[in-house]
Amino acid sequence: MEHWKEQWCALLPPNVGEVLKRLDDDAPLLEIRLRRDAPMELVFDRADRIVYGNNAAPMTSGDDLRELCARLQEFSAYAWENERRDGFLTVHGCRVGLSGRMVRTERGVLGFSNVSGVNIRIVREVIDCAKPLLPMLSDGGGLLSALLISPPGCGKTTLLRDLVRIASDGRHGIKAKRVGVADERFELCGASDGSIPFDLGTRTDVLSGITKSDAALRIVATLSPQVLAMDELNTVADAAAVTEAAGKGVTVLATAPGRSWESARKRPFLRRLFQDRIFDRYVILSGIGTCAEVLDADGRRIDRTV
After folding, report:
1. Which of 123, 135, 164, 300 has its CA 20 to 30 A from that of 281?
2. What predicted TM-score, i.e. pTM, was given to this entire model?
3. CA nearest 248: which of 234, 269, 227, 276?
4. How far apart are CA 16 and CA 27, in angstroms?
5. What are 204's strand-pairing partners?
6. What's the pLDDT at 198?
7. Could you tell me which residues come within 8 angstroms of residue 235 by beta carbon, excluding any fewer than 6 positions away?
């Protein structure tokens, strides 16, 4: 996977790219926030930094943002047509949030009449970040079905991606399995052109560009996976697809937003998954790459050092 600087510095306005090039390659940058007629905000894991242009001028203008959006459209035509109504795009595997004025088109679809802000969430591949959790997430050499729960930006997608790789390659005492990835927004595989820049393992098949629920059902029906991975369960249809896969003996690895086991369990579309004990394990992340606890199917903490 290319370093984020190689992916983004050429895409962004020149003055922004020059600032970013001067950052250390291993700087813990999480987000690049650009706003119309305003300074740039760089969000790191422990602090934020505000960066002005020359002579304390704004870093980006409305024209800069329009030109940036035009370049992003070239990289992700599907995303521009199908994702911008949701307020974000996916480029280089990174979620790009948009702010501004939204309007309905003649077809009744929401879109942006202008964009006043762009937030780029930097994605990194962290190989073996899931390794310390494997004793609690496996049994007899096979991964157990697990739901990774955390607020946004705490690394649950990164952790899921590493679990997929470990299951697919059969590493660290885990038996190799066929893995199917339902990647609606290209965030797990990292590209919308059919390639897989991220390392998802040698036995992994990815279906992307359609809803997670549709992708999951198609994967189960046609690709005979032993493990199914889904990022960000958000709808009743997503939950139904998980139930369908689990009912056919497929191990399910998934993520969902939430601050705790209790908060996730109270979400209407997830409630039935908890009641039916679809997941054997729940991993609660409390910060960037920080595992607060691992729970069993009944919500009881597993007492083992992580």
Report:
1. 123
2. 0.85
3. 227
4. 16
5. 179
6. 87
7. 213, 269
